[in-house]
Amino acid sequence: MDDFHGVVRQVVKRTLYVTVFLGVLWLLFDPWKSIFAGLTIGSAVSLYFAVSLARQTEMATAVALGQKKKKPIVAMVSRIAMIALGVMAIHRLGYPSIWSFLVGLYTHQVILFVGMILGRGKGN
After folding, report:
1. Residue 47: exposed, middle, or buried by beta-carbon count in 10 A (0-12, 13-18, 19+)?
2. CA dihedral (62, 67, 68, 69) positive or negative
3. Which pLDDT score, from 0 to 100, does residue 43 have?
4. CA–CA distance, 4 with 91 (Å, rounded to integer)
């Protein structure tokens, strides 16, 4: 379980760094403001997804080990609500690209995949 927590911590931390970096690019590069705005908002929603998925996995593990009773999980509903919130933010701002928002939603998954590929090369 410690390996899981270490991976989750690294993915959340790196996703946060990418989100902040994209936010800085959003502020600095005016010609591509629309693209970086969508990527930043999508990456922020992706950060929420990473934390939510980790929490949901911990709850499922506790139920599987018999430590807790099964509780109703509304994770899918909350993820859909976060996507809707991101789309509403894009609509409210008026200029972010919806396509870059959709690409930004995959930020934590790409970070996890790259971490797995690079981790295998080190013998982990």
Report:
1. buried
2. positive
3. 95
4. 37
pLDDT over 80 at 121, yes or no: no
Q: In one letter, which amino acid is 15?
A: T
Cα 62 to Cα 64: distance, rounded to the nearest angstrom:
5
At residue 58, does pLDDT exceed 70? yes
Give the CA distances from residue 97 to residues 11, 38, 46, 51, 110, in Å, rounded to whole numbers and listed in that order.
25, 5, 16, 25, 20
Euclidean distance between the first and the last CA atom of the chain, given in angstroms as a whole number: 15
Q: How many angstroms separate the most distant Cα atoms in the chain?
A: 55
Helix 107-121 with 2-28: angle, nearest 10 deg? 120
Is the pLDDT assigned to residue 1 strictly greater than 70?
no
Q: Higher model confidence: residue 65 or residue 109?
A: 109
